[in-house]
Amino acid sequence: MNELKNKQGFICDMDGVIYHGNKILEGVREFIKWLIDNDKKFVFLTNSSERTPHELSMKLGRMGLDVGASHFYTSAMATAEFLHSQAPGSTAYVIGEAALTKALYDHGIYMNDVNPDYVIVGETSTYSFEKIEKAINLVLAGAKLIGTNPDITGPTEKGIMPATGALISPIEMATGKKAYFVGKPNPLMLRHGLKKLNCHSQDIAFIGDRMDTDIIAGIESNVDTVLVLSGVTDREDIDRYPYRPKYIFDGIGDIVK
Predict the structure, then answer these.
(1) Per-residue model confidence as pLDDT tens digits over 1-15
(2) DSSP summary character for residue 113
(3) 13 is catalytic
(4) Which of 50, 97, 49 is nearest to 75 (CA)?
(5) Number of domains observed in the structure of the chain
């Protein structure tokens, strides 16, 4: 525990670690207070592409947590940076929320529903057959298929909801084209987190609730991993995987008890 607490910085997942939907999880207030009181560097890294950093800051503010927008990095931002590095000035047809569109605009990736370079899918509550049909035809015409993250489901205060991996699956099946996913477990996300913290990998710990994205991303980035059981993973699930987290806690607050 001393080794973990002595880390210079922490990269934390959000859904299932900090909150479920609009419900803050037990021990989160104490953990964030500990980070601030001990001058720890920290960034919240989320595979969700639904909200901007400012919106995430406001969401935590409504829960009574004062965390500035600079402490957040999303899969929408990572997707926009990836496409900007691959094909500056390219265009995209997007199935997703406004935060994803904004991140793309901010990096010079513009909307195009006629002959785009990319079809990009992120979390959305406005999924429809019409959008799926449009995406399928654009991919068949040559657009490259990108997913902001591969998560099949995500936790909410109401239970489990379908996430990007599930939403993009019909397009993959109908076209025979596999999507490239930018979010975790792609190490790109953690590398961006390390860059924001200005820390070496051995000086930080990564906290997440998913074995298949969070923990494997940390392991492949040579970062100490912390699994919390407050999200989608139960303790009995851990042995199903050929790798293990370095630390396991019921919730994030247990780290500072």
Answers:
(1) 789 999 999 999 998
(2) S
(3) yes
(4) 49
(5) 2
